[in-house]
Amino acid sequence: MPAYPLSREFQVFFDDLKTVAQGLNRPECVLSLDDGTLIAAHGSGGYSVVSTTGKVTNWLIEHPPERTYVPNGIALAPDGQVLFADLGASAGGLFALDKRGSLSTVLDSVNGLSLPPTNFVFINEHNVLWFTVSTRKIPRSEAWNHDVKDGFIGVVDAAGSRIVADGLGYTNEIAVSPDGRWLYVNETYAQRVSRFALQGTSAAPELGPRETIAQLRGADLPDGLAFDVYGGLWLTCIASNRVLLVRPDGDVQTILSDTDDAHAARIALGIREKSLKHSDMQTPGRSRLGNVSSIAFGGADMRTAYLGCLLDDQIRSFDSPLPGLVLPHRRRKLAH
């Protein structure tokens, strides 16, 4: 295997970051398209489109909905519609929103279970929809510890919807490895990165047993993830407000850190003592990264890393020495 072409000393500092867009609402998830457009989740029920000049246009549910929707993970479908995973207070599901503000339900139950608050969604090149549910607990804060492992991964394919992996420790974002052999997942409050062998067929996938790739500590809570073309896995961690790199040899390297140490210590203690409450995670402490929650590679050469967040109104970016893996949505176009 060729040596991984990134120095173990490589690091990015906060002052190296560029502000790409501001005035956003909870841009938890960011997608990058090949024309330079960015799409971000909008916490008030929709999504935001960021032009190459940084202009932000919001597309929200047009009519007052029956409930409050909180878009978390977002996906761009082959037909140009934006899908979102609803991380509501007590209900979830997958929904599509067009530019007229019309909302349609994509999935509201699986295996006979009404979907709890739903975390992430993406559609691969075979038109298979993957999604995650972090926990069945209501409120979700009851799962903010190492003991609760009731999150799952699901798919929607030609045969319908089903759960393909269960018993996970707060399931968050998922990504397919560059060689297409593995599905990686962040288990946020288990503080680990896991993977599953992709089995079955491209049209009807199944997953093998779970394997632990990296076990994190302290207040490193892995949320977002993205591969570079050489197999390095870049993670964003809320609470600690760090960007980490899991190198192909398994070593974990800190790329960016803007941590409030006192806040991080409180969160780490709360995880161990199973005492975290919703309010504890509604502040990044003194960190300027606003609970950095996602990373998306883009730009003409795929060497721009865009950072989404939970508690700030900005998308920031930094220059990556390595190009990111091109994702299927990259060449899709927003419906007009």
Automatic annotation (TrEMBL):
Pfam families per UniProt: SGL
SUPFAM superfamilies recorded: Calcium-dependent phosphotriesterase
Domain SMP-30/Gluconolactonase/LRE-like region: 89-255
Highest taxon, organism lineage: Bacteria
Name the UniProt record assigns to this protein: SMP-30/gluconolactonase/LRE family protein
